[in-house]
Specification:
Layout: E1 15-16, E2 19-20, E3 28-32, E4 39-44, H1 48-62, H2 68-84, H3 86-97, H4 101-120, E5 128-129, E6 138-145, E7 148-152, H5 160-172, E8 176-179, H6 186-197, E9 205-207, H7 212-221, E10 225-231, H8 234-244, E11 250-254, E12 259-263, H9 269-281, E13 291-297, H10 298-313, H11 333-348, E14 352-355, E15 369-372, H12 379-382, E16 389-395, H13 398-406, E17 413-417, H14 421-430, E18 435-438, E19 457-458, H15 463-468, E20 471-478
Parallel strand pairs: 7-8, 7-10, 8-9, 10-11, 12-13, 12-17, 13-16, 15-16, 17-18
Antiparallel strand pairs: 1-2, 3-4, 5-6, 6-20, 11-19, 14-15
Helix pairs in contact: 1-7, 2-4, 2-5, 3-4, 3-6, 4-5, 7-8, 9-10
The chain binds nicotinamide-adenine-dinucleotide.
Residues 152-156, 161, 179-182, 212-213, 216, 231-233, 236, 239-240, 254-257, 288, 384, 412, 452, 456-457 line the site of nicotinamide-adenine-dinucleotide.
């Protein structure tokens, strides 16, 4: 087992009722370093019973949720705690997820930003009194905590994706039950050790992980859980929606994407190439907002492809803890096999391999790859590849390019590169995606709402909208008898 230099990881267990629990009698799950395959840690495999205990702990806290000033203090303390231990958290993220350490540091700073931003929206949660008196009554509107929030997160940004949810839940006054991915639970466990040290009210945050299906069933059906916030694959999002539907839970779903990246003939080539490299290879291409389909105008296709090819050839893959590494390993053999099969499928259907290739499925580092001649029926065009592969198609006119870009059941992120303001406005309006970036490859920031159209999800995270996901409005007309 690798020695993890992480003092915050002294208790590797579930957390509820304000304490790490003794779960040593449970079966244990192994957590591996994706860069080497070495065992990092073993963690208890919790199930339905532990999930129920965690929900009950949260439900008990719901009877006396923190008031608005307390929530402000908690949010500030969490932000400060993340920044104070940025290095320790970043190292844990890199160890369990594989991403380069610089990206992991950026993830921790990004996570802290959600707590800073959520604090800004607390004032909007003060009760409001209607200035007029319809029906001769005084009308007040309260922003109540919606109930216990179940927060289920993926492995690709273990702390960033949780921060989006936890900041909104705490701002809204909701106690939560957190369930991280079993592939990357360590950074979340360490974060809980810090939350414990911050002295949060018992039951406000609770942690379970292990048998995802068994835990998920409890979180979807327990009457105390009123908000189910999930980030992960569209398939699991659909399953959780079905399980939660009979109980009318509020759903906040951040699901898969299939982002198009459109480069028109008038685009600044250097800007577009830089943006594509930064956007595509972050987290080794395992991000929901990374460009999956690149559409380029024929007039600039040649210089664009050769500039991208030179940059892809220069990328250095290696363990995220090593200096100078641009991309890390694939998260696991399943992730590797999916990327491998997408490249094989494209080549079998006539795509051209410009850089990289299929690699060796026994390896952990997929070679950064550039394919051209992509057609819509290839798997890499119709599904999220989730790996370091750039797949380029060439187009002759704007309408055809926009139509192809929008022809997907997903709708998370899209990118448009053009020097023409009118064209940018026209194209953005025709793309049914929750996040459409113009002349930048930037993903979301904590200050704005982010979420998907279509099969990419429901609800928003970040900004004031991300807080409102955890708030129920209660309207109270006051009759004359109460003073
Ligand atoms: P996943 O759906 O396999 O797992 C996500 C989480 O759901 C994990 O915690 C997992 O343990 C849990 N889970 C799995 N089966 C479950 C069940 N039956 N009941 C309850 N929980 C269950 O996704 P992943 O592989 O961890 O993450 C990658 C996916 O996440 C990609 O599709 C990516 O696009 C998506 N993603 C979306 C966003 C976004 O903001 N839209 C952000 C990051 C990742």
């Amino acid at each position: 087992m690798i020695a993890l230099a992480a003092p915050l990881l002294s208790s590797i267990s579930g957390y509820w009722a304000g304490a790490f629990q003794d779960l040593s009698a449970l079966p244990q799950l192994d957590v591996f370093d994706p860069a080497s395959g070495a065992l990092l840690a073993t963690v208890p495999q919790m199930g339905a019973l532990e999930a129920r205990l965690a929900v009950e702990s949260a439900a008990a806290r719901l009877r006396s949720p923190p008031n608005l000033p307390e929530r402000g203090r908690i949010l500030s303390n969490i932000e400060a705690g993340l920044l104070a231990e940025q290095e320790q958290f970043a190292e844990l993220i890199t160890r369990e997820n594989g991403k380069p350490l610089a990206e992991a540091r950026a993830e921790v700073a990004y996570a802290a930003g959600f707590f800073r931003d959520a604090r800004r929206h607390l004032d909007a949660l003060q009760p409001k009194t209607l200035p007029t008196r319809p029906r001769g009554l005084t009308w007040r509107v309260h922003h109540r905590p919606a109930g216990v929030a179940a927060l289920i997160t993926p492995w690709n940004f273990p702390m960033g994706m949780l921060a989006k949810k936890l900041a909104g839940a705490i701002a809204g006054g909701c106690p939560s039950v957190v369930k991280p991915s079993e592939i990357t639970p360590l950074s979340t466990i360490a974060w809980f050790a810090q939350l414990h040290a911050l002295g949060l009210p018992p039951g406000l945050v609770n942690l379970v992980f292990g048998d995802a299906a068994a835990i998920g069933k409890v979180l979807c059906s327990h009457p105390a859980v009123r908000v189910l916030s999930f980030t992960g694959s569209t398939a699991v999002g659909a399953l959780l929606s079905q399980q939660a539907a009979p109980h009318f839970k509020r759903l906040s779903l951040e699901l898969g994407g299939n982002a198009p990246f459109l480069v028109f003939e008038d685009a600044d080539l250097d800007t577009a190439v830089d943006a594509l490299m930064a956007n595509k290879f972050r987290n080794t291409g395992q991000t929901c907002v990374c460009a999956n389909r690149v559409y380029v105008a024929r007039a600039i296709a040649e210089p664009f492809v050769s500039a991208v090819a030179a940059r892809v050839r220069a990328l250095r893959a290696g363990p995220g803890m090593e200096a100078g590494v641009d991309i890390g390993p694939m998260i696991d053999a399943r992730g590797y096999a999916k990327v491998h099969s997408h490249v094989q499928d494209a080549l079998a259907m006539g795509a051209t391999l410009v850089v990289g290739g299929s690699g060796d499925p026994a390896q952990r580092f997929f070679p950064p790859t550039l394919l051209t001649g992509i057609t819509p029926t290839m798997a890499c065009a119709s599904e999220e590849t989730f790996g370091p592969v750039i797949a380029i198609s060439v187009f002759d006119d704007e309408d055809a390019m926009v139509q192809a870009a929008d022809d997907t059941p997903y709708g998370l992120a899209a990118y448009v590169f053009t020097a023409d303001r009118a064209r940018a406005d026209r194209v953005v309006a025709q793309l049914h995606f929750g996040h459409v970036a113009v002349n930048t490859g930037s993903g979301p920031t904590p200050e704005v709402p982010f979420g998907g159209f279509r099969c990419s999800g429901l609800g928003r995270e970040g900004g004031a909208e991300g807080v409102m996901e955890y708030v129920e409005l209660q309207t109270v007309p006051w009759g004359p008898a109460v003073g």
